[in-house]
Here is the input.
Amino acid sequence: MERSRIDWALTAIAVCAVMCGLLWPHARDAGAILAAQGDPAVLADLELDSALRNNPSAVGENIEAALAQGDADLAGSFVEVAKQKNMALPDDLSRRVSDAVVEQNSTSHFAKHFASGLLTGNADDVASLSGTLAGDLFVFGDIRDVVREGKHLATGEDTDRLVLSLAAAGLAVTAATYVSVGGVAPLRAGLTLVKDARKLGRLGEGLTEWAGRSARDMVDTPMLQNAVASGSVTRPGQTLSAIKAAFRAEKAGALVRLAKDVGRVGEKAGIRAAQDTLRIAEGPKDVARAARLAEAKGGQTRAFLKVLGRGALLLAAGAFDLALWVSGALLALLGLLSSIKATTERLTLSWLRRRKARRLRKQMAAAAQPQVAMAGVEG
Here is the structure.
């Protein structure tokens, strides 16, 4: 019976040790990810490492896909990740990426997209954003958007109040940009990027809802209707003062903070990274975390966002699963320690019993010797 108990305890040790060995790698990674929740750069690094372990060819595949889509910026972002992770890429693939980046930065490409951004107000890359920003810095773009949306509002048509508020805020910020000699340029760029994303339907659903609520009271509707009725894109100076008077700067704090963070992403990681952020973000906190990621990772940011999506910004639905890995490993470790304790106790008890039995046998043998001697004498 005693032997059986010891065997069971030894079996428990073996089982718990195997479980600890199997669970430890997952628990270690899960614990590191849970501990990095407050640091987007560390969290994204850990999650990308995990993704690359599951699919080592992911970097090369994404580079090929980006080149096929004509997105040299994204392909270059993955090349930066490969360098940082010490991953070797085929020479031919690296050359193709370099050629695509050179073409994208060529003078003819820049001029074409600059003109497109200036005239349409739509930004797809650095060149077109430069054109869009030029239009907004000369107040042409913002007045165009305010007049268009303001007329919709005045005539009772569907009005995009978010674009209207962003354009009105942009007019106020543009003046500050000139005064500070570009000191608030990231904010100016951020407002343009958010406005552009909204017009092109590239603003995430969650962020759209939040921004819509934030922009609701930023514009005095009656004052704006009067400004629009007498204003025109061809008379920007006259229209500007009337529109700025209708803008309630005290209501714009949250939206301005969002635009600042978007501008930081664009400044550190590029225009496309800022656009990707606006597409996946569910609220201003996501954008703020993206700004921190961009400041740490720079040109690699787009690759992180492409592979991980919103998971690059925060720990989302996987938190419970990660906690289960950690809990499972702790339970296995507790079981191992308990089994070792139980086995030690049973082995000690068995040793004490055997020692006691040996001592008892010696005592009985010692007590029996005089009796044998006396029996011999009597005989």
